[in-house]
Design a protein that fits this description.
single chain; Rossmann fold; 3 domains; 6-stranded antiparallel beta sheet
Length: 378
């Protein structure tokens, strides 16, 4: 059977940013029952559902449990299985096919994507995070980025078996969570910050309540008591936005034992630092930074955006965060490069306590301070 053509009425809804429904797909397939027979109707329904409700040609890629990212660059498709980006065997049938895919996925996420709104962030019903951009903002056809959540969140022991962190580093991270140290997980894009944060939160005692704030749901946490707050983008009329800074304030009213912000990247840094300075121990977040020592400048820059002075941010950060865990890539693997402590002296500094040397984390100048944070257990 040839690839099904999306019916005009369904496609018009998609262009308006209105997601199609399974009922509509069923009605279209049923209308062909007399011509195709029962078996042909079943096949048509399955193919239409894949092309209208699913990911179409990308479905086999996200079905691979090792795949964390699928990237469409116009006609070409790339993926990441945790060892760097590689070319996929799938290709799209030209720029128009890429545009149809991008617009349709945006509609499934409840967003509108067209020439007036040529880029979009959203969450697909399956939990996959979507970002899409249309020409002329990007060359060579529509570009789509899919961040695929892991089906089962790995714990620290699993990350150790993968080579992300050595045995001593695994024990130290576990002890830091149990000691209620406040943590920032830093690193570049695709280094495993969200994966590590989820593994750390799995170590939180079962009788504690985690309140988790995210812009778009990405964190997978194996814990019995997780409350999730998720930001909301504008609807197709451009209304209804709810920012992370408001959600952080709401989270503080929900009796969190651990306050977690999936990624701090804007004005919410002000409320997070304030919360961690007022008795909310054991909080955590991730932040983009090239090195562990860059974290202070990165947080200062975010604080300035939130109308805080540099001095105020440094003062808040010194009292709010105990440890920075920095991730990178080595030999195609995501690895813990450094575990560092914050030294709240005259000039706030990030002091390495453990630093990757070969396949192990070696003790550095900040080790005694880190050891004190975990009650001398190491």
């Amino acid at each position: 059977m040839t690839a099904p053509t999306t019916p005009a009425g369904v496609w018009e809804r998609i262009r308006r940013g209105v997601p199609p429904s399974a009922e509509q797909v069923g009605e279209v397939a049923a209308a062909e029952a007399a011509r195709l027979g029962a078996e042909g109707t079943t096949v048509l329904h399955r193919e239409l559902a894949g092309s209208v409700l699913g990911l179409g040609p990308l479905e086999p890629l996200v079905a691979d449990e090792a795949v964390t990212d699928v990237l469409v660059n116009g006609e070409t498709v790339w993926l990441d299985r945790g060892h760097g980006v590689e070319r996929a065997a799938v290709t799209l049938d030209g720029p128009e096919a890429a545009r149809r895919l991008a617009v349709r996925l945006a509609a499934l996420a409840g967003r509108r994507l067209d020439d007036a709104t040529p880029f979009v962030d959203g969450l697909l019903p399956s939990g996959i995070r979507l970002h899409a951009v249309l020409p002329p903002l990007v060359d060579g056809g529509a570009h789509v980025s899919l961040r695929v959540p892991r089906r089962r969140a790995p714990d620290l022991a699993t990350l150790h078996s993968w080579g992300m962190v050595d045995a001593e580093g695994t024990d130290v991270l576990r002890d830091l969570v149990r000691a209620r140290a406040a943590l920032l997980v830093s690193g570049g894009t695709g280094t495993g910050k969200t994966t590590l944060l989820g593994a750390l939160l799995a170590e939180v005692p079962a009788d504690e309540r985690i309140v988790l704030v995210e812009d778009v749901r990405e964190l997978s946490v194996r814990h019995p008591h997780v409350v999730r707050l998720q930001g909301r983008g504008a609807n197709v009329e451009g209304r209804g936005v709810i920012q992370l800074e408001e959600l952080v304030r709401q989270a503080l009213r929900m009796r969190p034992d651990r306050l977690v912000v999936g990624e701090v990247r804007g004005r919410e840094v002000r409320d997070l630092l304030g919360a961690l300075n007022t008795g909310h121990e054991g909080g955590a977040s991730t932040v983009h930074a090239n090195t562990a020592r860059d974290v202070v400048d990165r947080v200062v820059a975010l604080g300035v955006l939130a109308d805080l002075s540099r001095e105020a941010v440094l003062s808040q950060l010194s009292g709010a965060v105990d440890v920075v865990v920095h991730l990178g890539r080595a030999g195609g693997r995501r690895v813990v490069e450094e575990v560092a402590v914050l030294d709240g002296g005259a000039a706030l500094a990030v002091v390495p306590a453990l630093r990757r040397e070969g396949d192990r984390l070696a003790r550095q100048a900040g080790w005694p301070r880190l050891r004190n944070l975990v009650g001398g257990r190491r």
